[in-house]
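Notebook B, p. 112. Complex prediction, attempt 2.
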Amino acid sequence: MDATREIATVLLLVSGLSFMLIGAWGTVRLPDAYHRLHASSKCSTLGLLGLLLGAVVHIGTAAALTKALLTLVFAFVAAPVGSHILARSAHAAGLEQWDRTLSDELAEDQGDHPEDQ
Amino acid sequence: MIRRLGFDMALAVLYLSWSGNHAWPGILVGLVLGFIVVSVYDLGTQHPNHGRRALRMLRFGVYFLAILVRSNLQIAREIMTPGFSQTPRILRYPVDDLDDFQTTVLANCITLTPGTLVVDVSDDGRWLYVHCMYALDRSEAIAGLRRLDERLRREVFSW
């Protein structure tokens, strides 16, 4: 029983950490600000899910589960909101987009209604 | 739904203060009892059933976790294989008929699903601007957003 719990803990922690590592790598490697935000917002959320579940399995009390669930709710709300703000500021600052970007309808619309800016 | 959930919790609190059993099992029993009372109450009203709606929301939760994992695997593959295969666009997506809260929920879900990231909301709240990583065909990318949108409307917004 204890052995299965150890194994489950290790699996959850390792998978959570790998997603976080991949997210960090993507933040360095991907071509422009928007792609980097894809990596940082998605991977860190799932990575945190893995880490917290690992901690809950290891500690194994109801209090730990409650705290982990609360943390997850906050993380699932906060991470996308943070990435919206970053993406929005990136666009407002006119950061260079990857040269293979096909179209930018946000820039088109802002061009149509200059008074909106 | 929100009001019924509040009712549900009020019943749980009532149960807790009477039983004096404040540990986790007691709280769960209180919530389940409250849930049953609200469901039975709904049988006599015109509202769609409380239990069925809660199940639908739960199903959306499971679906959402599945697409979160899928979006992570997709971006992990893009990061770990050499070269890039993205065909990105920034698209506008109409959200005229959603209120501010629903728009926020939809935007958060879009950001956590595969290949899409919300960049901005228009000042009048009618459009979301979404950065799609794989949008070679514009209408197909919009259809993907539409699928998530409709699922969210059917299973979560139908309070």
